[in-house]
Amino acid sequence: MADLHSRYDNPQTGERSVWRYTLPEGQDISIGRRPLTDHDVPDWNRSDWVVKDERVSGRHVILTFDGKELRVRRRLEPTDRPAINPVFYKGVQNDEFKLMPGESFTIGTTTFTLQLREAAPEETNSTGLTHTISRKDLRMGGFVNAQRPLMALAELPSILRQAQDDSALEESVLDVILNGLPIADFACFVQIDPLAGPDARAAITRYKHRNQKDDNVNVSHRLVRHTTRDVFKSVIYIWDKKLSESKLSMTYTPGTDWAICTPLEEQSTLNRAIYVAGQTTKNILTADQLKTDVDFHDHQKFVNLVAEFFASMREMRKAEDQNSRLRRYLPRRIVAMMQNSDLDKELDPKVAEVTALFCDLRGASKYAEENKDLLQSWKRMSLALDDMVTPIHEHGGVIGGLQGDAAVGFWGWPSSAVEQIDSAVRAALSIRRIFARNLELEKSKFNCGIGLAHGEGVVGRLGTYDSFKLDAYGDTMNLASRLESMTKHFGVKILVDEAIRNRHVKVDPTGLKARVRSMGKVKPAGMNKRLAIFELMPALVDSDPEEAGIRYALWETGIAAFIRGEFANARELIERFTASLSRTRKAFELNEGGPAHVFLDFMAKHKDPPETSEKKPWDGTIEMNAK
Asked: Which in 213, 535, 549, 610 has the greatest CB count within 10 A?
């Protein structure tokens, strides 16, 4: 068997944090700063064992013990978000190495040491005095000397508020014990493997010594076994080789002459206890003296109260963790409103003005087909979907769902303020910016198309009796989907309807934050309506805004002529527009599938404006045949 010993020293405050865990054989164990219960970060950035060092990533290293040596690997996946700070082994940065017993590695100011220990060695016995008392009996009566323990117990409410995870909670509880018991030299959490044999050794999972520089913490394994396996009550034991009244022989731990071991009554954790030990100047010679000694009774009562508090806190945290897991499947807006007693009323479906955003991941199907490792393929897609969803959340939107490799978001619930359009525009531009940057830096191979529409919709709790979600329904949602699909036809990233365009032109007439340009009129596939559509683009970055304004006025005039059926005039204006562009931008506009090419190609194929599908004169509408 082997333990991993962790020691963190804060150079600014002088604080020291230590723990020691038994390494399971053949099992991967992750170490980092974020616990598994922290659902605000992705799964790949949470850890089994937690340290306090700010220089350690959420999940920094993965360990595997084979019974003789420990394999250590710095987390390198996802490749664009690896563990940041280096791992030092023998003073040299190393991403993967094997640690032998007695050797150490360092991350930040935290040192990890592999300590090999023999299983169940012979223990040195010493007779002594023992007093076992149930939790029920300890609750009866008050403290005799109450000042010191009550002052320490008064710290517990603040611990409840401040402890961010189990690691911080354990450290704070040990501080409380040492503050409340001035005769204690150290306090620790111990655990016996419930599947281990009758001579199993106790693992010290976290400890604190009154002298922070002293790491010499030893426990009586027999006392821990007796407490957690035989009596399941609080046990106090005083060693003295001269005494022989007790029928119980416990392992003698050098440097201490008394110990209290109190089990933690937790349904989720078996055979765990708090163990406190130190030295006393009292001369207690009989079991009756120990039983009636008011000081040790107070000590035992105090440790029991702290143990009960800790166990209750752990159960509360377990419930909170379960709730956090469930909340991950709920929209953030719902989570924020869960304390509202009128939540059911708010969730009732209603007709409202909504702004819908539909964002589709481009290249996902091909990527999944070409990558045989389905799990790795999904992890990549998941990161890309996260890049879609996060801006929607950040700008106050609600995720209606993920449809395969597409994300659907909407604004307008629970209130339908007109500013919802501005928020949706900012979210769409943010998504576009993130994907463009990832492509430029070669962090991702995916691209995306976005459709934005505004109008009436039904919003609220939609679905069947036993399967429902917060969503929006109606033509507005369908139109957003059609607009996204048409981005491929027009060679643009974002298409919006006229309501979005009109609102944006009103709040940003000079295009300082974003700009729009006409993409003509269309009849979306599967819909009867004919509508004007517009491209939404980032703000102008041209060196001469006035010149750029004249340039895009050529485009707008050309599209207006196209809609009127004046193809010759439209063609001349669009060609003048493209001629005024930079070489790179001109190539983009005129290449097959580019925006300018779409209109020029249409006019090349139709010398005269074509009739509509209803055999009516041209009304400026391009009819889409595919969704």
From this structure: 535
